[in-house]
Design goal:
Layout (H helix, E strand, L loop, with lengths): L14 H13 L9 E8 L2 E8 L9 E6 L5 E6 L5 E5 L6 E6 L5 E6 L4 H7 L6 H29 L2
Antiparallel strand pairs: 1-2, 2-5, 3-4, 3-6, 6-7
Helix pairs in contact: 1-3
């Protein structure tokens, strides 16, 4: 008589290690950051210029742009980005603003300007490649290598008999 409490599938020793590394690889996949949208804006006189782009460098085409007054929250202007992901909006005067880019499907970015810190606002929004993206890509690559060799080791152990 067969014992029903005994597992019918034999689990290989170390297979949980393989699935652990597989889970880490899937959770730290750099593809999760592939559609992060970025927004960069600057003033030229009373014209506000900007460009929206995804982390891969593709422009955020036909994306909604809204400019809000920071002091009272009123919508000052709105437009849509061009095929190159750029836009220009004429504002009557420079007031503290928040620019919101909505690229659809939850992809949203914002840029804030306060006339008290004009220098800081223009420099802190310059896009530079993030260390987080590089670190995540390196970690994902190392996890993939470890997972691959763990799989080979387990496969060899199973088929060695």
């Amino acid at each position: 008589m067969k014992n029903i409490l005994q597992p019918s599938v034999q689990v290989l020793p170390g297979s949980s290690l393989f699935f652990f590394f597989l889970a880490i690889f899937l959770l730290t996949s750099p593809n999760a950051l592939a559609h992060k949208v970025n927004l960069f804006c600057w003033y030229e006189g009373t014209e506000l210029h900007g460009e929206g782009y995804f982390s891969g460098g593709n422009p955020a085409q036909n994306s909604s742009i809204r400019v809000y007054d920071l002091e009272n929250g009123n919508l000052l202007a709105s437009c849509v980005t061009s095929r190159k992901g750029t836009f220009t909006i004429s504002l009557e005067k420079k007031v503290p603003i928040k620019v919101v880019l909505d690229a659809g499907q939850g992809h949203r970015a914002s840029w804030t300007w306060n006339k008290k810190n004009e220098q800081a606002a223009s420099t802190e929004n310059i896009h530079t490649p993030g260390v987080k993206n590089k670190t995540t890509a390196i970690a994902a690559g190392l996890v993939a290598i470890v997972a691959f060799f763990s799989f080979l080791y387990l496969w060899k152990q199973r088929h060695a008999d």
